[in-house]
Specification:
With 151 residues, this protein is mainly alpha-helical. The protein has one domain (2-150). The chain contains 6 helices and no strands. Helix 5 (96-117) runs antiparallel to helix 6 (121-150). The longest helix has 30 residues, at 121-150. The radius of gyration is 17 Å and the shape is elongated. The two termini are 12 Å apart.
Length: 151
């Protein structure tokens, strides 16, 4: 049973990692042209109207990313028997670099919300520029560690 939990956690973490990497690339390479970070409203509207397939595909990546991270959190909680403060509750199970990445995600996760509350498009962009790599590092660390623990 325990091996199955770790195996599922590893798969969920690698899947979330891959999908978030793809979503981050979609944001950087496609979606940015149609977001508020592009100050030229006309250019944004032309891009969204003229690139509907790319625009929709980019947002589908982020929708799937949301689903994969929910699955990851559920598997993480199941493997550690704790849904409250996931990183804190599991800190003894992981090396320090994974803990630091996890705490960075916890701290950095509030930054996009704060930027949105402050109506700062630039703040939302830069908060995600910092958050997404930390999230990727944490998920990759958890995936690798869980894969080793299952055996």
């Amino acid at each position: 049973m325990k091996d199955r939990l770790w195996s599922r956690l590893s798969r969920a973490a690698w899947l979330a990692f891959a999908v978030h990497l793809l979503a981050g690339l979609a944001l950087a390479l496609i979606l940015r042209r149609g977001l508020e970070t592009n100050a030229d409203l006309g250019d944004r509207l032309r891009f969204v109207g003229g690139s509907r397939l790319a625009w929709t595909a980019g947002w589908i990546c982020w929708t799937v990313a949301a689903l994969t991270i929910l699955n990851f959190y559920a598997r993480f909680a199941a493997a550690h028997l704790s849904a409250l403060l996931l990183v804190w509750a599991s800190r003894s199970s992981y090396p320090r670099w994974i803990q630091i990445a996890g705490f960075g995600v916890v701290a950095g996760g509030a930054a996009p919300s704060a930027a949105a509350w402050a109506d700062s498009a630039a703040g939302m962009l830069w908060a995600n520029v910092v958050l997404v790599p930390g999230l990727l590092l944490w998920m990759a660390g958890v995936a690798a560690r869980a894969a080793r623990r299952k055996g």
